[in-house]
Specification:
There is one protein chain. The protein has 948 residues and is an alpha/beta fold. The chain has 28 helices and 30 strands. Helix 13 links the parallel strand 13 and strand 14. Helix 2 packs across helix 3 and helix 9 runs antiparallel to helix 10.
Length: 948
């Protein structure tokens, strides 16, 4: 007999409200078992209400939430579901570990992520993610005290739609401080409602006025007989599932107990073997003790003999000590006599000098001049901090004139107005190349620059200092006038003491040459926006720069050796590789060479080899680019960050060999020597190209840091970077100092793209939204200057779906087929402005193209020439973040034709933080989802108006 179809006709009519959905067989049954008794009603409710959105407050193990998700999936509903929970526990559920959340994810993620989201946060924190009137079904199952449940209901009530239904679990629990039943008693009379007393109770409250007729019938409290029958039927259907859940819980508990017993048995066996081993060890120790006892007796006899010899030696020592004491007395007398003679000599010398002063007018004159000089110097030291800027400029100008008269070449410097003009660069002897490169950029920017290798005698009186390797100096400029350039490798943390980290943190800013170092410093609390990436680059025309810095020019030299290595040769790995090179070539090894002597040695070598001190080291770019700037090719070991130096890998002036492979380095040196002999022009062109490329990058990054720190203004920034090239036609906008975001894009997103994407180091400025807008303005102007009429820019937190390549090909085809008919293609729109108008809707190749009159989002866009011209005209002097952020600015532009697709082409990476606003991207999920739904409604209205 079929229980549903074989009822009499009248009986079936009485149960016409009972739908097949109530017979759902759940895949996921966990503790707490009582909720299993309500799964039939949950599935029935989804079939009847067909909600657009469902929110569950307090998902715990997911027994109820996964039942909702299963019902939605099986019924093919277009419902978006959200489970909000911290998954940390509360006063009623108790605290629990990560296992609960991990188990839920394991059951949830493979099946429901296309419409379901797990929001790990507190209930109140989730409120901003949902618009008022957007939630159709709300299930409240969090902390069950009266105050907590009432708070949850009242705070989420505005979020409920006209179809809103609220479910209260544990409404029939009257123990301890459970208060759901108390709140239910207050609410059930205000709204149509239905209360299931079984399985700890479930209250159903129809808050919205627009409800399906069948649901209103069940919640009609005037028909008590019908409601009791409904409760009985659902209690009967749910009893089996509740028992099944309890049986599964007992089976899991039994399995855990059996596993525990097996573990104890295994431990017992191991303990037995351990006791047997101890017994054997005890027997061995007893035998060893007997042997030691015999040895001890022999040692005692030997010790007695040694004691006798010691007593004789002590007697001899006492005699020698007495004799030494006599000698000391004689020596003391001689020393006293010598001191007396020296005093007499000094007295006679002073008398002779006094006599000479009386006899010689010239002595008296020079003595007076020496006293005046010392007095003037002391006064100068005291007044140095108060010296007016004009006086200091005149003094330095006179000093330059005097040096120039003496033959020292001095480059002309254009001084800037104000007090931000004179920079000092403090660098040790082994980092002078970096100091010279910095001086070149600073002088190009109009600053007066002085170079020091130690604290200047007059103190730190200049406007600003850049200190290279600050840990090498005993005294440093004040923190507010000090930029530090960190040059140590984080692979060896010995330099990164608390004192050194404090120096980095308490400076105006901290610069570093390697992203890996920035990632390490971030773990120490030194992070963006305090840090700046300034990668070392080459210097073209280095000989002229040396003369500008007061150093000798580079003379012409003849090669004196095949290979040069300079650095610490105490590392065994370096010694092994150098020995292999010495067997094949003439090798010069220098361990302590700096300045002009080092530069001459590099120029006299045909090849310089770079061998790491540490096996996992970063690329020593300072050494590499100094050698290339001096005109000498380099053969280097690979490094942990070699992937960041792809331009070097293809350059004929440099060879990279595997780490620790001596034979590979020998072969690379041989190839480099052959290339120099056979095609010297190719090597020199490679040198010139890399010096130009890396030098431009170094200059840009130094100017970028100075601009962010307010050391140069906008007009200077634009003038100084005008010669910088456009990185490419498809770019990702990224801050190298936000290491995690950039690494995620390069490692996760970039490999999935079919086109070449260049990474652009975004302009830095405070507040961050200005720097972001300046980045777009900068790229747009570069594009227009070089004649580029279409530019693609994405941000590094963009997420590409699996079908991105296929959809992108169709989109590119549409854009190419409609030239001049669009200004911006938007891969994602975060918010649909209330005044947005749909201009056109086209269906092509399975894609829906929507043309709008405005947009808001910069995550992934393609800009045609009108949009580039608009970006280039953005005004940085307007500092209102409500109207002049770059997306708000574009949105306010009239006649802007924006093309997007439904659904959107790309998404937002949710596990990243915004570098502008400091919030997690997860908060954008609901906003973007709403924007897509709003756009669908606009498209539907447009089609209706067009009669489609």
């Amino acid at each position: 007999m079929n229980r549903m179809t074989d009822f009499p006709v009248q009986a079936r009519a009485d149960y016409d409200w009972l739908l097949p959905a109530a017979l759902l067989e759940p895949y996921h049954l966990t503790h707490p078992a009582p909720w299993a008794g309500h799964i039939p009603f949950a599935a029935w409710l989804m079939a009847v209400a067909q909600p657009r959105s469902l929110v569950e407050l307090g998902a715990y193990s997911g027994i109820s939430y996964l039942a909702f998700c299963q019902a939605i999936a099986e019924q093919g509903l277009m419902t978006r579901t959200y489970a909000v929970d911290t998954w940390e526990g509360d006063a009623h559920a108790g605290a629990y570990g990560e296992g609960i959340y991990a188990s839920l994810r394991q059951a949830h993620d493979p099946h429901y992520t296309q419409f379901s989201t797990l929001m790990r946060m507190r209930f109140d924190e989730a409120l901003p993610s949902f618009a008022d009137g957007s939630v159709d079904v709300l299930h409240i199952d969090g902390l069950h005290t009266y105050e907590a449940v009432r708070h949850d209901f009242e705070t989420w009530l505005p979020k409920l739609s006209e179809r809103g239904v609220v479910l209260f679990h544990d409404s029939n629990v009257h123990r301890d401080d459970f208060g759901v039943h108390q709140l239910w008693a207050e609410l059930e009379g205000r709204y149509p409602s239905l209360h299931f007393p079984h399985s700890n109770g479930l209250g159903v409250l129809l808050v919205g006025a627009q409800q399906p007729a069948l649901l209103r019938r069940l919640c009609d409290r005037s028909d008590a007989v019908f409601q009791r029958e409904v409760c009985r039927v659902f209690a009967t259907l749910g009893a089996r599932l509740e028992v099944k859940a309890e049986m599964m819980a007992l089976q899991h508990a039994l399995g855990d107990r059996q596993q525990h017993i097996q573990t104890l048995e295994t431990a017992g066996q191991q303990r037995h073997r351990w006791i047997e081993k101890l017994d054997g060890d005890i027997r061995s120790l007893e035998l060893e003790r007997e042997q030691l006892r015999a040895h001890l007796e022999g040692s005692q006899a030997q010790a007695q003999h040694s004691q006798n010899a010691l007593e004789q030696a002590q007697a001899q020592a006492q005699w020698l000590a007495a004799r030494q004491q006599q000698q000391d007395i004689k020596l003391l007398a001689l020393q006293q006599d010598l001191a007396q003679k020296q005093w007499q000599i000094e007295q006679q010398t002073q008398q002779m000098q006094a006599l000479a002063r009386q006899l010689s007018p010239l002595w008296r004159l020079t003595d007076l001049l020496r006293k005046c000089k010392r007095a003037v110097f002391r006064i100068k030291q005291k007044l140095a901090p108060y010296e007016p800027a004009l006086v200091r400029r005149v003094r330095h100008a006179l000093r330059r004139k005097m040096r120039q008269a003496g033959g020292a070449p001095i480059a002309a410097v254009a001084l800037l107005p104000g007090s931000n003009r004179h920079y000092g660069i403090l660098a040790t002897a082994h980092t002078q190349f970096v100091a010279h490169a910095l001086a070149r950029v600073l002088r190009k920017a109009g600053f007066e620059v002085s170079l020091f290798q130690d604290m200047p005698p007059e103190g730190f009186g200049l406007d600003m200092y850049i200190v290279v390797c600050p840990q090498m100096f005993k005294q440093l400029p004040p923190g507010e006038r000090r930029i530090v350039f960190q040059m140590e490798q984080s692979v060896s943390p010995r330099w990164f003491t608390d004192e050194y980290l404090a120096i980095l943190e308490n400076s105006l800013s901290a610069w570093d040459y390697a992203p890996a170092n920035l990632a390490f410093l971030e773990t120490k609390g030194i992070r963006y926006p305090h840090t700046f990436l300034v990668p070392i680059g080459g210097v073209a025309a280095y000989s002229q720069l040396l003369q500008d810095c007061g150093e000798p020019a580079l003379p012409e030299v003849e090669p004196g050796c095949d290979v040069l290595f300079y650095g610490d040769v105490n590392a065994p790995r370096r010694q092994e590789m150098l020995q292999a090179l010495q067997r094949q070539f003439s090798v010069r090894i220098e361990g302590n060479l700096f300045g002009d002597a080092l530069r001459q040695a590099v120029r006299q070598a045909r090849v310089v080899v770079n061998i790491h001190y540490y096996e996992g080291a970063l690329l020593e770019t300072t050494r590499v680019y100094e050698c290339l700037s001096l005109g000498t090719p380099v053969v280097t070991e690979s490094s942990a960050d070699i992937h960041l130096h792809s331009a070097l890998l293809d350059n004929p002036a440099l060879r990279v060999t595997p780490v620790g492979d001596a034979q590979a380095m020998v072969q690379a040196v041989q190839e480099m020597l052959q290339l120099q002999a056979q095609a010297p022009g190719q090597v020199q062109r490679g040198l010139a190209d890399e010096l130009a490329r890396s030098g431009q990058q170094f200059e840009f990054m130094v100017l970028r840091a100075l601009y962010a720190l307010g050391r140069i203004d906008t007009a200077q920034w634009e003038a100084l970077t005008s010669s910088q090239p456009l990185p490419g036609r498809c770019m990702v906008l990224s801050m190298p100092e936000t290491v995690r975001r950039r690494a995620h894009f390069i490692e996760q997103t970039l490999p999935g793209l079919q086109t070449e994407v260049k990474v652009f180091d975004g302009v830095r400025y405070s507040p961050g939204w200005l720097g972001c807008a300046m980045s777009y303005q900068y790229l747009a102007r570069k594009a227009l200057q070089t004649g580029v009429t279409q530019l693609e820019i994405m941000e590094d937190d963009v997420e590409m779906p699996p079908d991105y390549a296929q959809r992108r090909a169709r989109i590119d085809g549409w854009l190419d087929a409609h030239p001049g008919e669009w200004d911006i293609f938007a891969g994602l729109i975060a918010k649909i402005h209330p005044g947005t108008q749909v201009l056109e809707v086209q269906e092509q190749d399975g894609e829906t193209f929507v043309v709008l009159d405005r947009m808001t989002s910069m995550v992934h866009n393609i800009y045609a020439q009108p949009a580039l011209e608009a970006l280039a005209q953005w005004d940085s002097s307007m500092r209102d973040p409500h109207t002049n952020t770059i997306d708000s600015y574009l949105q306010g532009r009239a006649q802007m034709r924006v093309v997007t697709t439904l659904p959107f082409l790309v998404a937002h990476t949710t596990d990243m933080d915004s570098s502008l606003w400091g919030i997690n991207n997860h908060e954008y999920l609901a906003v973007i989802y709403k924007a897509e739904q709003d756009l669908r409604q606009l498209v539907d209205r447009f089609k209706q108006a067009q009669g489609r």
